[in-house]
Amino acid sequence: MHATIQKPIDEITGYLRPGEKVFVVGCGNCAAKCHSGGAPETEEMAERLKKKGVEVAGWACTDSGVSLCKLAIVKKMLNETYQTETEKADSFLILACGQGIHTVMDATEGGMVHPGCDTIFGGETVTDDFITEYCSLCGECIVEYTGGLCPVTLCAKSLLNGPCGGAKDGKCEVDRTRDCGWQLIYDRLKELGRLEEMDKYQTPKNNSRWSRPRSLTMVESGATFKSLAGELSISRKD
Amino acid sequence: MSKLKDKLSSREFVVTGEIGPPKGVDISGCLHDAEQLRDYVTAINVTDLQSAVFRIGSLAVSCKLVERRLEPIYQLTCRDRNRLALQSDLLSAWALGIENVLCLTGDHPAMGDHTEAKPVYDLDSVQLIKAASTLNQGQDMSGHELDSKPSFFLGGVVTPGADPVEPQVIKMKKKIEAGAVFFQTQAVYEPDKLEDFMNRVQGFNVPVIAGIVILKGAAMAKFMNQNVAGITVPDSIIEEMSDTPKEDRKKQAVEITARIIRQVKPLCQGVHIMPLGWDELVPQVIKEAEL
Prior knowledge:
By secondary structure, chain A is of the alpha/beta class.
């Protein structure tokens, strides 16, 4: 999931020009989980904006569990269900991640969009009120060798071949309240009886697979991942 | 020809020192520090933006040591450069007459004075050693031939006092496999711990140079215990220092440093003295340590 946090209200109102009519859009999936742009927060934002003197054309949020980054759904929502309101709007304020912002731009064929949130990381929803980061979307997963724990994400320096000398009492040098990622990996591999995995040399990352923007095309038999490293096609039929 | 390499290869006990480049363009102070070490050490480490604090670079200062016929150990960290810059700086270093390179991860920018800087770490220390060793073989990391090749004497670092120490030992082995042929350690004040560590790495058959920071007083020792990973100054040493009047501190620092060196000497193949500005004490330390 994409974790997001709302921008301060004054920053948002600062984006809007005098007399600009705004339509507020939320996401029923990730932003709802982050309480940054589900239906209640989207409605609430419409009210907060009105109180600040902003003209609000209306608001809409995808159904619970449905992501705003699905173009077909957003097209239907904004161009059919809420057509009357969106036609009156000069712009859209998106309470969702950056993918959601672009989806609204696509759905409205180039409508003016404003970000209502900062997209901060991809994470695991550990509890209803706690989300934390375990993956950096690097495109080259090596957790097979690290007991399922990602050193790119959990180590402050993203080291691939073991800890630096900076950990103290199992805590990271950048923040003594934060666990050293390599301490976690070491403990886990030891517990699994697979410590020998740590002996293996991990090659430097192929950063061209991390180059942006990347894309994924699905076909019946598999998918093709496109990045600066080229096109990687994987078949599910082998 | 690297004197450090010669001495370590012939199993001589070596002494190395360390200087820290300044924040500014006048390097006379650190060159003066280096001069004080001239007759007492085999080579001098030049730190690379130590503690992630912005300063003049280790390449320039190492080069200035070469000009003065002092032998540098050029410290190169992974924090600030990607693999293009690291490999290029290595070739530059060789062209400037630098042979010894110590490859390190580098303190995180969050520890220094430019906390919003992008931490690079495109390579880690093991991968950097491998890259440097590949340059020694006449190729770059992408497998392209160099038209002429360096012959670096490559070192790594290890923290014998880390708890647990096993991940350090695993990584040390990977550094050796990647091409590290000597090691310098984080500061050690407990000879017993160093002995345990040396027993663990005996089979690796690489020279280990034990680090020691000259302690300026009890407050510094306590600070290091609380804040620096892998360093433990025993209470007995802190107590010894806490009653000492200010005017006697240097004398005592010499005594303590020399004593630890005498204790660790049978365990390793050298000592790396980090004077942190008290460079003028090094000759006396070496005399009292009977080196």
